[in-house]
């Protein structure tokens, strides 16, 4: 009884997933409790989290400032969300439109939900809203900034900017 259990513990991931989480799902990984939240949130591009929802930058954005808002639970249907989760997500989307209007001078937004793979959901098992800021004439702008390096640089800067002052009520819960 000596040694075996200890070595098993040592190889465990430092994250503690929510019940029902899919360990391969990037939204579940972002929503998991982290040993070092500051480091993990930067790596996962998480801007805000509370006990119900998380917000993160899309790693493969359609546009600068493309955010994802998701319930922390791994659920794929709108009908599976609690009233509290619906409310938290809608409040957060509203807050983020204001924040990005100020920070990025966004002039409009597209907010959308892809339900099911046939509708374009990349991760159909874990519901998430896309929040895409828009600017006058941005259709012409996008093709000129296709460099991966440029986009990854701006993701980091954007994470810093959006993270500032964006805290959810009930943050740092167990
Ligand atoms: Zn998930």
Blueprint (SSEs and pairs):
Layout lengths: L3 H7 L15 H6 L5 H8 L1 E4 L3 E5 L9 E5 L11 H21 L4 E6 L15 E6 L3 H4 L6 H16 L11
The protein binds zinc ion.
Protein architecture, described:
This protein is α+β, with helices and mostly antiparallel strands and about 170 residues long. It has one domain: HIT family, subunit A (2-Layer Sandwich), CATH 3.30.428.10. The protein has six helices and five strands. It has helices at about 5-10, 25-30, 35-45, 85-105, 140, 150-165; strands at about 45-50, 55, 65-70, 110-115, 130-135. The chain has a five-stranded antiparallel sheet with strand order 1-2-3-5-4. A hairpin with a 3-residue loop joins strand 1 and strand 2 (about 55). The longest helix has 21 residues, at about 85-105. The chain is globular, with a radius of gyration of 17 Å. Zinc ion (ZN) binds near residues 22 and 27.
Brief summary of the model shown:
The chain has 174 residues and is α+β, with helices and mostly antiparallel strands. The chain is 36% helix and 15% strand. The chain has one domain: HIT-like (HIT family, subunit A).
Core attributes:
6 helices, 5 strands, 5-stranded antiparallel beta sheet, 174 residues, binds zinc ion, alpha+beta, HIT family, subunit A, disordered N terminus, disordered C terminus, 15% strand
CATH topology: HIT family, subunit A
Small-molecule components bound: zinc ion
Average pLDDT rating: 81
How many strands in all?
5
CATH superfamily: HIT-like
Biggest sheet, in brief? 5 strands, antiparallel
How far is it from the N-terminal to the C-terminal residue, by CA?
A: 31 Å
Question: Which oligomeric form is depicted?
Answer: single chain
Biggest β-sheet: strands ordered side by side in the sheet: 1-2-3-5-4
CATH architecture: 2-Layer Sandwich
Tally of individual domains: 1
**Residues in β-strands, percent:** 5-15%
Report the order of strands and helices.
HHHEEEHEEHH
SS-based structural class? alpha+beta
Helix proportion range: 25-40%
Summed up, the helix count is 6
